[in-house]
Amino acid sequence: MGSWMKTLEMKTRGMKTQAAAAAVAVLAAGIGTGAGPASADVIAEVKERGKLIVGVKADYAPYGFLDSSGKIVGIEPDLAQDVADVLGVELELVPVVSSNRMQFLEQGKIDLMIATMTDRNDRREVVQIVDPNYYSSGTNILTKGNFANWEDLKGAPVCGIQGAFYNRKTSEDFGATIVAFKGTAEALTALKQNRCVAFVYDDSFIVSRLGDADWEGWTMPLPTIDDAPWGLAVKKGEDAFAKMMSGMIVDWHMSGRILELEAKYGLEQTPFAKKMHAAFRDFNPSIER
C-alpha cells in the first residue's frame, strides 16, 4: 500500500459513514478525478447526441428547485452541469420525484440521476449507485406541534412523500399515520391546510424551509435520526460511466466543490461535506501508486 493510501485511511478512520470506506476503495482502484477518458455505450450516446440528460429534483430547494423563470436550479443541477462540462456536451435537466427517479433511469429516460436519493442496498439492486457518496442527511419533521420525542407521533397524521423510506419507520416504529403525496409541494400544501400535523422528510430540506419567511413559526423539534448518505446513480451495467462518476465525486470532495455549493445556496456547511473534504483535500492523484 502506497503512502497516499495510508494517509487517506488515517484521515477517514474517524468517519462514521459508509462513504469513507467506499472512498478508499475508489481510490485504491486507481480512479482519478473524472476528467480522464471513459468509454461505454451511454457515454458514446451522450457525445453523439451532444446532450447529457440528468434527472434531478425540481421541488426540493436548495438541492433542485424552480427559479422565478421556471428554470431548474440548485446544488444538484450545478453538479449535473459539471458532468456535462467534462463530457463537452449540453445539459438537459428532467424533473423527477422519489417514486419515479429509478424507473426513469431503468427506462433510459435519463442518463444520470442526481436526485437526493438515500443510498440503500435494495436500491443498489435496481440502479448502479456510485461510490463514494456525494452527500448525506437524516430524518426529522417540520411542524407547529408540540412534539418532543418521535414516540409523540403515535396516532398522528403525518405528511410524507410517496416512495420515501422515512415513511415506514415513522409508521412502524413510532405509530404515525402516513398521508403520502407525490411531491414536496403537495405535502407542504397539505401541512399548511392542517391535513397533517407534521411533515417527515430530510432534515436538510427542512432546514432550508425554516429560513423562509413563509415558514415562520414552524420548527424541527425532534432529534435527527437515521443519518444516511446520498448516492447518485447510473443505469445498471454502465461500469465505465460509473467509474467516471466516481472520479468526479472524489474531485468534488477534494476540491471543496460541495462546500462551495452549500455556501452558494445559503446552507450551513454539513458535517458530511466537511469530513469528506478534509479526507480528500491532501490527496494528490499524480503521486505514484
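the 2nd protein, sequnce then structure:
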Amino acid sequence: MQLLAQDQRARLIANGQSRGDHAPVVKFFNPVGSGTWLFSELDEDGDTLFGLCDLGFGCPEMGSASLSEIAAVKLPFGLAIERDLHFEGSFPLTIYADAARLCGGITEDAARLEAAAAARAKEDSALPPP
C-alpha cells in the first residue's frame, strides 16, 4: 500500500505552505509493535513530513520525519509501516500533542482530546492580549 494517497499529499503540501496549527491529515502505525505518527504537513521536497511522532518510549514529540525512510522500514513477517485508512484528524496537531504528553502516547480518545483542548483554551484565555 502507498503510504500517501494523492489527495492526502496535496493537503499535506498545502498545509506546509501556510502557517497554522493544522489538523493531522494522515496517521501511520507499526502493525507489529510500537510506533505511531500523525502528520499535518509535507515540505515541497515531497519527503519531509511534520507532525507528532511516538516511538513507544512514553515521550511523543513534534518534529520532522522522512517519508522515504518510513516507507523503507522492513518489519517482521514481510510487513511495513501502514496508513490508518479510517483516521480523521478532528483537532489541531497541538491538541493531539498535549493529549499524548498527558497519556504517554498518541491517543484518539475523544474525551482526552477534548480535555486537552479545554485546557489549552483555558491557558490561552489567561494570556494577556497581544
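The chain has a mean pLDDT of 95. The two ends are 46 Å apart (CA to CA).
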